[in-house]
Structure formats: C-alpha cells, structure tokens
Amino acid sequence: MPKLDSTVKNVVNQTLAPMGISQIRYFAQKFSKIPGIIKLTLGEPDFNVPEHVKQAAIKSIEDNDSHYSEQRGTLSLRKAVSGYINTRYNVKYDPENEVIVTIGGTEAIFVSLAAIINPGYKILVPTPTFALYIPIIKVLGGIPVQIDTTPDNFRLTGKKLQEVIDREGEDQVKALILNFPGNPTGFEYSKEQLEEIVDVIKGKSMYVLTDEIYSELTYGVKHTSMVELLPGKTILVNGLSKSHAMTGYRIGYVAAPADFVENAGKMHAYTVTCPSNPAQYAAEEALTNGMDDPKEMRDIYKQRRDYIVEQLNEIGYKTLLPEGAFYTFSQIPKEFGLSSVEFAEKLAEEGKVGVTPGIAFGEGGEGHFRMSYASSMDDIKEAMKRLKVFTDNLKQNA
C-alpha cells in the first residue's frame, strides 16, 4: 500500500483538514460494532422502493439508456419536478432554466450554497438542524451563525431572526437555512410562523435556502412551502429519498429563479456532470404516477411515532410530539450529569440501544438525543424496554 510522501503531507485544504466525518455517520458506525445493539440512528426508511418506480429504472437499463443526460437532468424529469411543485404549492418553475436535478439533497445543498458564498459571508443556521449545513458553509469559506431555537420549541421566530441579523450586521448576512419538517426535531412551521420570518427578510439582501426533503411525511398538519410566500428569494431543496424510500438512488433537486439556477448549475456541472439515467427515470415515475406512494409509509410512521413518544415520556425523557419526518428529539434529564455524547455512548454500551447525540445537530442540540423511528415496530418496542432498564439503573446511581 502506498504511503503518502512526506513532501506533500502539508499540501492540504486547511479548512477541510480539521473536520471529521458527519457526526451522524460517526456514531452510527461506532455503535454498529457493539454486538446485539438496536440502532435507531440513521434516518433511512425501512421500506422498499415502490414496485412501479423500480420498474422504471429497470426499463431505462433495458432500453440501453447509458449515455450522458443533460447536465441539469433530463428535461422530462425537470418537467415532473416542476409539475409536482405547481400541484402542491401553486408555484410554477420553468423546467428549462429554473430546476436542477442533483445527486441527492446533499449535492443540492452544496451547489446552492456554493452559488451564494464568498469568503466571510455569514449564513444563519437555526439549530438543532441537519448536520451537514455547517461544515459545507465552512468549506466554502462562509461563516455559519448558529441560532439556538430550543427556547422556542425548536422553531425560529421572526423576533429572534431580527435580533441575530442586527447583531451580525445586515450587510454580512447573505442567507438563512430552514429545514422543515425538521431533522432532528420533526417540527413543522405553520404558514403564520413562516410569514413572521418573511416579514423580516423580504427587504434584505439575503436568500432563504429551504430544505423540505420531509415535506411528504407530515402527520395531521398541512405543509406550507417557503416558495409559496417568497418565491423570488427562496432556493427550494427537495428530493425522493424520504418520500419514496429512494435514499440509494441519490436524486434530489433545486428549484429557484433562473438567474440563481444559472450560477448554481455551473457548480453542479463542475462537480458531477449529470445524474444517473436509471435513477432519473425512476424519480420521474415517482413524481408523475407515485404521489400517493408515501401514504402507506406515512401511516406506519405515525403509528410508530405515537408509540415511541408515549414511551419516552413515560420513561422520563421529555419529548414533544413531532409533526413530520421520522425522528424524536428527547431531553436528557439534567440530574444524570451527562453530555449528549456521554449519554449516547453509555446507552449504546450498557443499554445496547444506538441513538444520535444532540450535539451532532449543532449547539442547540446539546442536552438531547435523537431517535429514528424509520425502523420496525419490533425493534422500537425492544429498544424501549432496554431504554427503561438502562434509565432505571441511571436513576439509582444518580
């Protein structure tokens, strides 16, 4: 095996070098090594891709559809994306120049931020939130400004947003990132709550990057998209990973005004050239003929959510009821005297249950832990039994 030559050891991106891997992945991998553990760590649906969607991918392969597609994705898929957004939110995007098909939601986030950030630009990130926003901002030379939303039940208020903009300097703040339904909290924003945010930023020189990857997985509440309220300044990120259990197909998309897409499309082209054809045809089928597919999954997730939230609160972990996605975000009792990392590691080693420590989701997540209920009910029930035994032991020794 080749050993890195000593003359190039220090030839390295100084921003990237000190960063570790995603904390979500780190703890999932670490806990996987513990024999007999039940992992409620990763946010990956435990359902199969709908059959008709799989058949569309198979047909693409059988038709020898093996050449490069257009860089921004097949026009037919971009039309399907545009049609979906128009059906759901009554906002029209031109598939020719206002949509980019990306390699999952992660690339959509990366190319969107790359199109905005110059060195020193400040990007507002309400936390706790998805773990990848902050490192991507840093790699691109921006400054992530974390906003702790725990005092307001994990939602950013208009008042708090204005306070942060005033403190950081309006001329330096270039974007706000919103993720809803949220990972890790599962909380939605109502239309009225979004309007508060819009009132603050509509006259300012800043974008809203809105990651709505869980928009099809809500429970008893209507999802309002930011594109309905502020389309001229909103960058919509979405995809098929969660709604159709297509995580491995890696299809996401960006929808935004044409001038923005022109710039973001350059980074997309430089980075990946184009998405995979079979995956694109599967995504087109999902968006065209499969918009009822998430219903069965959503109903099952809701049953799991109701059970796990009740159990967590009974055991002694304050847990608010999520309105979407497939996560619970629970408070660690202060009397345990454990950080979120210490709690998660102790629970994995002694209780044989894998969870993700709250600090993985930014400063606002400390003191909490995330559980994914994208797992079988049998595993969830056993995990709750183990958690109760573990917690009883903690209380006795507290």
TrEMBL record:
Native source species: Companilactobacillus versmoldensis DSM 14857 = KCTC 3814
Positions of the Aminotransferase class I/classII large domain: 37-387
Recorded GO MF terms: pyridoxal phosphate binding; transaminase activity
Membrane spanning stretches: none
Matching InterPro entries: Aminotransferase_I/II_large, AspAT/PAT-like, NHTrfase_class1_PyrdxlP-BS, PyrdxlP-dep_Trfase, PyrdxlP-dep_Trfase_major, PyrdxlP-dep_Trfase_small
Pfam families the record matches: Aminotran_1_2
Cofactor(s) needed: pyridoxal 5'-phosphate
Protein family (similarity comment): Belongs to the class-I pyridoxal-phosphate-dependent aminotransferase family.
Official protein name in the record: Aminotransferase
Root EC class: transferase
Tagged with keyword 4Fe-4S: no
